[in-house]
Each structure stands twice: as C-alpha cells, then as structure tokens.
C-alpha cells in the first residue's frame, strides 16, 4: 500500500513537471519553441546536414532586381511567363533579321501572326497587367522589340 502511494506521488510530480514544461504563457511558449527549433537546427548541423552546400563560405549574390528573381535564378527556375518571354524575344529578333535579308513579307507576316498568338498567351499569364505587351506588326516590329529586351 505504501509503494502504491509513492508511485502515485511520483506520477503526480512528473505530471506537474510536464504541465509546467508546456505552460500556456506566451513568453515561455515562444522561448520553448525557439529553443526547440535551435535544437533541431543544431542537431541537423551536427549530423552534417549543412556540409558541402553549394556556395558554402561565399556571400549570396543578389542582383539589382528583386530578391525573388535572384532566388528563382539561383534555383535555376524560370516561371512559364519568363520562358515564353524569352521565346517571343528570340522569334521577334529572327523575324527582324529575316525582314532585313528579304523583301518577301508574306512569310514574315505568317511569322508575326504566330508571334502575336504567343504574345496574347503571354499577356494572359503574366502576374501583373503592367507586364503585358502590345501586339507587333511589320510596321512596328523593330520599335516593339525594344520592349522585349
């Protein structure tokens, strides 16, 4: 009977200690959470999780543009609209070069129609209306190319 009473007292002491550990006080919770995250990070580092990372010991390169763009660039990721932008730019340049070489504008008009379809698609997927571009024609293709550079 005495052993059972001691076990109950020990259990109550453990339960009280556990409840204190998970107190609902905001400051203590924040401290416990921060300590827990520090413990997880340090454990990860001790197991070698941070060894041999690309660019280790070098400063991060952040371009003059937005931070998001530089992060995406470092991850070798291009959004679909940026890929499409590059394709359109290359096609416009090819069309300009073809115009300079030949006076036959019928084939170039077909190429411009295909480019304009891509521009319309581009305008639908860009993240902001300010990034949308106007359609091109034989008359304005050289001027419009500067918008795509």
Keywords:
149 residues; elongated; mainly alpha
3D architecture notes:
The protein is mostly helical and 149 residues long. It is built from six helices and no strands. The protein has helices spanning 2-21, 26-46, 67-74, 80-101, 105-125, 141-148. Helix 4 packs antiparallel against helix 6 (141-148). The relative contact order is 0.07. Mean pLDDT is 79; it is low at 23-28.
Overall mean pLDDT: 79
Q: What is the N-to-C order of secondary-structure elements (H for helix, E for strand)?
A: HHHHHH
* Low-pLDDT residue intervals, each spanning 5 or more residues: 23-28
* Helical segment count: 6
What percent strand? Answer: under 5%
Query: Which structural class should the secondary elements be placed in?
Result: mainly alpha
Would you report the number of β strands?
A: 0
What is the 3D shape? elongated
Helix content: 55-70%
Sheet with the most strands?
none
Radius of gyration: 31 Å
Spatial gap, N to C terminus: 87 Å
Please summarize what this structure is.
The protein is an all-alpha fold and 149 residues long. It has 6 helices and no strands.
Mind sketching the topology for me?
Elements: H1 2-21, H2 26-46, H3 67-74, H4 80-101, H5 105-125, H6 141-148
């Amino acid at each position: 009977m005495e052993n059972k009473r001691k076990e109950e007292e020990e259990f109550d002491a453990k339960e009280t200690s556990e409840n204190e550990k998970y107190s609902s006080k905001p400051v203590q919770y924040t401290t416990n959470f921060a300590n827990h995250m520090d413990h997880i990070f340090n454990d990860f580092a001790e197991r070698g999780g941070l060894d041999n990372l690309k660019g280790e010991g070098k400063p991060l390169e952040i371009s003059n543009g937005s931070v998001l763009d530089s992060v995406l660039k470092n991850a070798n990721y291009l959004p679909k609209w940026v890929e499409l932008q590059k394709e359109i730019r290359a096609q416009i340049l090819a069309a300009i070069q073809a115009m300079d070489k030949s006076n036959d504008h019928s084939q170039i008009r077909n190429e411009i129609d295909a480019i304009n379809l891509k521009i319309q698609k581009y305008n639908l997927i860009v993240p902001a209306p300010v990034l949308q571009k106007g359609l091109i024609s034989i008359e304005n293709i050289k001027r419009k190319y500067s918008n795509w550079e």
